[in-house]
Design brief:
About 80% of the residues lie in helices and about 0% in strands. The chain is built from 13 helices and no strands. The termini are close together. About 0% of the residues have low confidence.
């Protein structure tokens, strides 16, 4: 169990840091940065990782039953749309709050999805998990309040130029809807992991490589939906010319780092879920993974001075929300000891 929890935390750290390089791209609009990131993240990195590290990968894919593959593809497309909305939310409301609201929603819904796929565990375990999720929900609400207070503080000190970034409420709504759609990731992982693991090991691969195969299906499928959106956005806003910048090389490097961190986080999480066991890996591991991500993102947001203009009241609400989410995740992790 300890190994699974540790890997879930490491995965959360990677995911919490992946969007940080976005702050340092130059001459790019939102659509340029995130379209390049998603192109690398969903198409380039998965193909390199899968075909380089997995023996007989084509045979592994061919061994997946069509109904399982279709289910994974549909839920992965929903995840892709949600992930795209996540990036948009961060653009509206910043790294720390964007992660808090989005990931909080993902934790609340995504942690329950594996129970519908694999069945509900013992009553005491299930009730403990639900109790932890309620505490996490209170933390998410406190983080949302912190974001609204922060906007009021910033509006009071901002110039007209500073205020052009968009509505905090709009950003929060985008993050919540995106989080709901992104729970397709949890469903796809729970639905296909065991079958893909069997197919991968039949080709002589180590068990940890199965996680790469699972993420390959999810990322490639979700990437299609994301690509359609960004091609439309880049064309309608006439932003293709923005890629012609002296900073293109640096921007490619930064978005590549984002892509590698994001994909690695998902692979490490899938391995953590495997180590935690079939019954609770997708729920307990998923909650630990995402809460560690929120913690990392909030600390990153504080370090990069996203909250420098926020009042003590706003910051205290943020700290309260973070504390509640940590307490909630401890309760959820404790449920694994009751199994």
């Amino acid at each position: 169990m300890i190994t699974g929890v540790l890997f879930a935390i490491i995965a959360g750290l990677l995911l919490g840091l992946y969007a940080l390089p976005e702050k340092f791209t130059k001459d790019f609009e939102f659509e340029n940065t995130w379209s390049m990131f998603f192109a690398i993240n969903t198409f380039v990195v998965p193909n390199i990782a899968a075909f380089l590290l997995i023996d007989g990968f084509a045979d592994v894919l061919a061994a997946i039953p069509s109904n399982v593959l279709i289910g994974m593809i549909i839920s992965s497309i929903l995840w892709g749309i949600g992930a795209m909305m996540w990036g948009k939310a961060i653009n509206y409301i910043g790294l720390s709050l964007g992660f808090s609201i989005f990931i909080g929603t993902v934790i609340l819904v995504g942690s329950l999805i594996p129970f519908f796929v694999g069945g509900i565990p013992a009553t005491n375990v299930f009730l403990t998990i639900l109790g932890g999720l309620v505490v996490v929900l209170l933390g998410v609400m406190a983080n949302g309040r912190a974001g609204i207070l922060r906007q009021k503080d910033e509006d009071g000190a901002a110039t007209a130029e500073d205020k052009k970034g968009g509505s905090m409420v709009t950003g929060i709504l985008i993050a919540i809807v995106g989080g709901l759609l992104a729970t397709g990731f949890s469903f796809a992982t729970s639905y296909g992991s065991e079958i893909i693991d069997q197919a991968s090991q039949a080709q002589g691969n180590a068990s940890w490589k199965s996680a790469i195969a699972v993420m390959y299906v999810i990322y490639m499928s979700g990437g299609v939906a994301i690509a359609v959106y960004f091609v439309q956005q880049l064309s309608s806003k006439k932003l293709w010319s923005k890629f012609k910048t002296p900073h293109l090389g640096k921007n490619i490097l930064l978005t590549t780092i984002m892509g590698v961190f994001n994909f690695a986080a998902s692979v490490v999480f899938a391995y953590a879920a495997f180590k935690l066991g079939k019954e609770l890996g997708g729920s307990v591991g998923y909650a630990i993974f995402n809460t560690a991500c929120v913690l990392t993102a909030i600390v990153s947001g504080l370090i990069t001075k996203e909250w420098i203009k926020a009042s003590a009241k706003a910051k205290n609400s943020l700290y309260l929300g973070l504390s509640l989410m940590v307490v909630g995740i401890i309760i959820i992790a404790y449920s694994n000891t009751l199994a």
